[in-house]
Amino acid sequence: MPEVxxxxxxxxxxDVPASVRAACARASRVLALIVxxxxxxxxxxxxxxxxxxxxxxxxxxxxxxxIVGQIVSIVETAQGAAYVFTTRAAQPCDELSADLTLKAATxxxxxxxxxxxxxxIECSSALGQRSVSVNALIDGHxxxxxxxxxxxVNNTSMVRNRPSLLVGVPGExxxxxxxxxxxxxxxxxxxxxxxLSVFRQAELNVGEGAVLREAQALVHVRDAPLLADVxxxxxxxxxxxxxxxxxxxxxxxxxxxxxxxxxxxxxLSALLVWLVRRLQKSGQSRRDQxxxxxxxxxxxxxxxxxxxxxxxxxxxVEALLRWVRPGIGEVxxxxxxxxxxxxxxxxxxxxxxxxxxxxxVATWDVAPGFHLSVNFAPEHLSGDALVSDVRALCAAVKPxxxxxxxxxxxxxxxxNTEQARHNLEALRGEGVQxxxxxxxxxxxxxxxxxxxxxxxxKIDRGFVLTIExxxxxxxxxxxxxxxxxxxxxxxxxxxxETQTHLDYLCARGVTWIQGFVYAKPMxxxxxxxxxxxxxxxxxxxxxxxxxxAGTP
Length: 552
Ligand code: C2E
Ligand code: CA
Ligand code: CA
Prior knowledge:
The chain is of the alpha/beta class. The chain has 17 helices and 20 strands.
């Protein structure tokens, strides 16, 4: 039996050196921690920026919708004043002039009311009959439309360097009534609703004319984000308002959001790091704990005697691994065996068990042909190490007259068809007996019984428990017994606890009885003493108090 150190055993599960795998595992653990730590912080920063921009856009949209609505209302007022004169547009100026002046003075927003014809201002509320070129009024741009029109101009002939909004409506005989709206109203609107303290620039376009900017000095908007661009069609023209944001103000909002939410993000990040660390530790520690426990020799083996019905004596044991953790106590075998399987340390653990068995058996003095059953897990059964491990075990226990029985469960057989069968056939050819453990609990079809070589069926304790004191038939149990007989297999009944169980099973030709009614699992030295005292003659139930584990 070769010495199997846990470290070496660990290496056997992979071609990559353990140090490299450990370094990779450490690096991936650190990376995972960095990612979970950074994720909430990055999300907070990104969402904060997105939210700051969203707030700025919402403000700009509200402001521009309000401003454009107000401009529409101003234009409608101007058009209302103009329409009063559309049917009188062809009248001589001296009949119109006073009314135009009165109207211009009384209607809000209106600076002048003018009648335009043939490129000339025929009559004006400000200038009376003095003819002025229309081009002078509208700054050289005459809209080429027949109906209503709107236009922003930088100057008018009457007021230089002062933009105006011109509102034109068609009048009689090819004339236009043109209202000049003082742009101060629009500027006040822009100042009030989209102040420069909040936005970098507000630009108003009406039709094809000049652009009205809130900041009259040309402001560079190249680095400023366009927050709102609201358009409204009116009187054949487009009223368009663009608002550009102040990057420093958006940054300020962003900073405020970060101050408010960053502590939460930091807390979340710390929580996630803690959770991941815990997860990593629990995953890592299960594997590490098992490997460390092997090195610290915390495992030992207990042996549960099997009563051979025909011989009337103990002619075998099942080896059961035990883990007693210092300061914690005994760990349930099904728990740590499952953990070892999940963490892929079951092969090294079983190799460790074999080493312990070899050490124990060296002190035994049992009858020749004595059976020693050892449980093997699926991973081991389908691996390359199985045959050599079992061969080494057989060789080591042979001088003590001990024969090895290999216990495998149904699920093992179902999962590992080819390699497992190959391994089992090889070992069986060398005299190792194969027992199917926990028979009947694997939820599988019985077809594997034909495929796999085996010698012994172990009836699960669950079926033994169906035996009733009144002596009624346990139908499924009887079927299993019949099946084993017809397959030529020997039978072990597990978990036999009462005289009723025992009588029932013996009457049906079960080969071995394993259970507390005969003996509990016990450490090697206790088993040696028990065997010397009772093994050759004690029948189940005769002693009244079966030997218990840990009570040599
Ligand atoms: P198992 O292979 O079916 O082992 C038999 C279990 O039945 C043992 O539990 C034994 O103590 C228990 N037992 C025996 N007679 C009685 C009885 O009369 N009444 C009751 N209630 N129980 C009885 P244990 O030692 O706790 O092991 C539980 C399981 O852990 C084992 O079931 C086996 O699947 C696994 N296991 C234990 N040792 C090893 C090992 O060395 N290798 C592997 N792969 N699995 C092992
Ligand atoms: Ca077993
Ligand atoms: Ca079993």
